[in-house]
Amino acid sequence: MIDSEALNLPGIAHGFFTRGGGHSTGIFASLNCGLGSGDDPDLVRMNRETVARVIGVLPSSLVTAHQVHSAEAIEVTVPWGTEQRPKVDGLVTKTKGIGLGVLTADCGPVLFADADAGVVGACHAGWKGALTGVTEATLEAMERLGAVRTRTVAVLGPTISKEAYEVGPEFPKPFLAQDEAHGQYFTPSVKAGHHMFDLPRYLTDRLKREGVGSVHDLGLCTYGDEARFYSYRRATHRGEQDYGRLISVIALV
Question: With DSSP H G I counted as helix, E B as strand and the rest as coil, what are the percentages for the chain, rounded to 5?
């Protein structure tokens, strides 16, 4: 588990978990927490129980959504079962003992906290959710619970880096249509017509523009650090049929 000094706040537990310390084997080795992966469900459950114990919540109180690359965020008041997962990408709560988890394997996991208000949040921000506003939706959901964004802390965990994120000729268009200034997040790649996209900087800059008081990036690349992180893109490049999912969790304890 990797923590951020910025989120080491009174009453809050958090962790950006690596792939180590779990029960899964093969391409899923070892702390795969993805309910949607092809891993043995019993091993995934055991891995999630391990995570819950580290965070300090009951295994049944560690919740994740059925992530769909949306810009939707909801409040969590009671835990749900694995079959009742809502199709959203942002979670917020002011209820103690609930662990908000997001699953990633190149996309950006963002954890939020307003310790004074006793409100925390988490969101899964791939390029589509980032562009359409999943971070803004999560902040707005936190504000409905009493959070103030100017005193909120947001930390971006392990995410694919610009050096590993090559995109095709059509990819920049929706970003540029939204704002021509978004061109700064793309640089030409060695392949003609292609670009390297800086998702971490796009996310952290967007969080700052959205008025978050304290924004931090752990600066860790999922693609480049195979020993610690799963990567969808790395698995795809290798022709592997599936991949593990990292989990990032925050809770009021």
Answer: 30, 25, 45
pLDDT band at 7 (very low <50, low <70, confident <90, very high): very high
**Closest Cα to residue 67, out of 41, 39, 47, 86?**
86
Report the amino acid identity of residue 70.
S
Residue ranges with strand state E in the chain: 12-16, 62-64, 73-75, 90-93, 99-104, 108-114, 119-125, 153-156, 166-167, 186-188, 195-197, 214-217, 246-252
Mean pLDDT of the chain: 98
- Give me the phi and psi of 129, to 5 degrees please: -65, -35
Helix (H) or strand (E) holding 47: helix 41-55
pLDDT in tens, 21-71: 999 999 999 999 999 999 999 999 999 999 999 999 999 999 999 999 999
CATH code for position 96: 3.60.140.10
Q: Decide: 137 and 185 in contact? Cβ < 8 Å.
A: no
Rounded to whole angstroms, the Cα distance separating 135 from 143 reads: 12
Phi and psi, residue 100, nearest 5°: -90, 120
84: left (phi over 0), alpha (psi -120 to 50) or beta: alpha
Asked if the structure places residue 171 within a domain, the reply is no
In a domain, 193, yes or no: no
Indicate whether 190 belongs to any domain: no
